[in-house]
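[retry 2/3] Nucleoside diphosphate-linked moiety X motif 6: previous attempt timed out, resubmitting with same input.
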Amino acid sequence: MAGRAIVSAPWSTLALVRRRFSAHVTVPPRAGPSGVSCSQLHTQVCCRALTGQVDRFGGVTVNLAEVGLPADISEKTFSTLLKDSLAQWKADQKVAVWLQIPISLSRCAAAASDHGFMFHHAKRDYSVLALWLGAGESRLPPFATHQIGVAGAVVDESTGKVLVVQDKNKTKNAWKFPGGLSDLGENIGVTAVREVFEETGVRSEFRSLLSIRQQHNHPGAFGMSDMYLICRLSPLTHQINFCHQECVSCEWLALRELATTSSTTPITSRIAKLLLYGLEQGFDKIDLTMEELPAVYSGMFYQLYHQQLPTTLK
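[retry 2/3] Nucleoside diphosphate-linked moiety X motif 6: success.
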C-alpha cells in the first residue's frame, strides 16, 4: 500500500501552515563575550512581537522553528511574548492565528493553551495550534478528514480483457482492480499507474476517471471518511509479475466474465459492466477526462475531470 493522502477543508488558511515565511523577530546571541545573560536574552526577545505571514483572509501563520527563539526559552517567557503578539494582532484586526510548533519547543504549546489556543493537527515533528480572533464563533476549518484510495482498471481493447487481482489476507478472495492509497501531492492518475505496476508488474498509462465512491466512518481510515476512485488505464506491457506480499493471484480476465461472476465485489462488478459498455459503444460515453487549468488565487494548476465538451463549446 502507498502512503495515505488527505483532503483538507475548503479554506485555504489551512494550507498556510506549510508555507515558509520571513519572521522579523531579532534575537541576539547567547551569553558569551558580549556578556548578555540568558535572562537578559529572554527579556530582549519579549520586547518584540512575533510576526508571521498574513493570508488573504486576514489570518497570521507563525512557524516557531523559523523565528529565532532561544532553544531553552521558558514557558513563562514565551507566554509573555505571545501575549504581546496577540495584542498587536488584535490591534491590526487579524481574524486568526496559526502557531506551528516544532516538537523541540512543545512546551510552548502549554503556554499557548493559556491564551486560548487549541490543537488543530500534528505531524511527525511539529504540531499546529489555532486561535480564532474574529467576531462570533470560530470559522476556522477542521483538519483533513479523508483518505484517497485509487484503483486502475487496465483495459486491453484488443482482447476485451481487464487486469484484476485477488488481495492477500482477505476473508474473501474476490477479483478487484489493483490499487492503493495515494501519496500526498500525487495526482490520482499517477497513483493508479504506480499502484498497478507495484502490484502486478504491468506498466500502463492514464486514460480517464471512471467513478468515485464516498464512505464515512471507515475502519481503515481511523474512523474518518474514505474516497475511492477508479481510473481507466491502457496497458503498455502485458506480462504479469505480481507482488506476492500483497496479492495471491493476478490475471487478465474477460470483462464480460468479470461483469457476471460472483467472485468479485459489487463495485468491481458495476465498473466491469460500465467498461463493457464503453468497449462496445465507445469510451467517450463513460470517460471523465482530465484537463489541467490554472488556479485563480494561487497561480498553481489543478486537474479538472469531466465529460469531454463538443469541439464547438471548448
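[retry 2/3] Nucleoside diphosphate-linked moiety X motif 6: Residues 53-132 form a domain with the Aminopeptidase fold (CATH 3.40.630.30).
[retry 2/3] clearing retry counter.
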